[in-house]
Amino acid sequence: MTTLVLTLRESLRYRGAIGQWSWLLHRLSGLGVVLFIVLHVVDTSWAVFYPPLYEEAIKTYQSPLFTLGEFALVASVVYHAFNGLRVAFFDYRPQLWRHQGRAAVGVLLLSGLLLTPVFVLMFGHVLDFYNEEAFVLPLEEVIRAQLPFLGGFALAGIAALLLAGLHSLVAGRGSQTALSASSERFWWLYMRISGVLILPLVFGHLGMMHVVQGVFDISAAEHLAVGASEGQVGANATGTAVEFVHDRWSTFIGPLAIWRLYDFALLVLVVIHGFNGLRGVLWDYLHHPLAKRAALYLCLIAALVLLALGGGALVIGIDEAAIDEASRALCEIRQTHGATLEELVELGCEEFGETS
After folding, report:
1. Burial letters for 21-51: b for 16+ Cβ neighbours within 10 Å, e otherwise?
2. Which of 40, 263, 293, 345 could, after both became Cys, cross-link 164 (CB 3.0–4.6 A)?
């Protein structure tokens, strides 16, 4: 912690110009994206394993707090992607390093140019949603819904410390913590290659789920999921987030569930890229062998859990029973927050309307 505080303090004092700030922005944007990956993969897996919880999660995403977070997320992804390309390019062409300052400025300008129309389109979704007197969860409920994630982070941290301590007991206090030179070279190459491979996948995902359609469209009734084939699935009849995901994952090109394969490739590349990046950041500030080993186990545990949850959800898929369960959960959410009898009936919640 002393090293981290020192780094933060000296980063504000150091006059490193654009090179320093691009380095700092790259790390902060990467950390923001990793946090979102955790939330997004866990929440999406609930569409398969616990549909009512997924409906609650989407309602929290449709709150003003998460709306601001969505804009920050898109900005982080765009900047991190472009700056990552800059880093990879100069790693392979070090003789051009004298131009890196101008390239860093170019990354900022390019990010701004792309984000301007993207933010305009995203803000259009926001205005449409709130102009329709949309149902929004209160802020205290949105915050309370994030507490289980904090508990999960704490458990993962405890498990990582226990594993690190057990490793020290078995291997001895003097056992090596750092990865071998060949391992570090492999991960260095992986970060550059995966970063390039991720670009079309992540930009496509952002375009479909945050620009063409917004998070508000996920639970819009009679709305066809972007990427879904109208000939294979219908519009979102129940107006549930679970049916939205079902429609997208149920689109096939020949024998291939194209969007499941797309999401699986994105899941694997992004999770491994993100948590190896987090491991590198943590190791820059943690110097005690036990702390470094715990950081390694923390990243390993998180990556394996997310790959298992996300991969399992993609393999199992969503059936009609899950959609029905989600529809009932959505009615319960509306009833809990004071929907009138007329509103419940209009939403197709006749059984709830009769008991209101």
Report:
1. ebebbbbebbbbbbbbbbbbbbbbbbbbebb
2. 293
**Cα distances (angstroms) measured from residue 38 to each of 34, 200, 267:** 6, 21, 11
Dihedral angle sign, alpha carbons of residues 12, 16, 22, 28: negative
What is the arithmetic mean of pLDDT over 97-119? 94
Is the pLDDT confidence value at 244 over 60?
A: yes
278 CB-near residues (< 8 Å, 6+ apart) = 30, 31, 34, 299
Confidence band for 3, pLDDT divided at 50, 70 and 90? low
Tens of pLDDT, residue by residue over 280-290, are 999 988 888 88
From the CB of residue 328, how many other CB atoms can be counted at a distance below 10 Å?
18
Is residue 51 within 8 A of residue 325, CB to CB? The reply is yes
- Tell me the pTM: 0.90
Pairwise CA distance, residues 356 & 354, whole Å:
6
Return the percentage of the chain with pLDDT > 90, whole number: 62
Quickly count helices (H) and strands (E) in the chain.
14, 0
Q: What distance in Å separates the CA atoms of residue 3 and residue 316, rounded to the nearest whole number?
A: 45
Q: CA 220 → CA 79, 155, 196, distances in Å?
A: 30, 36, 34
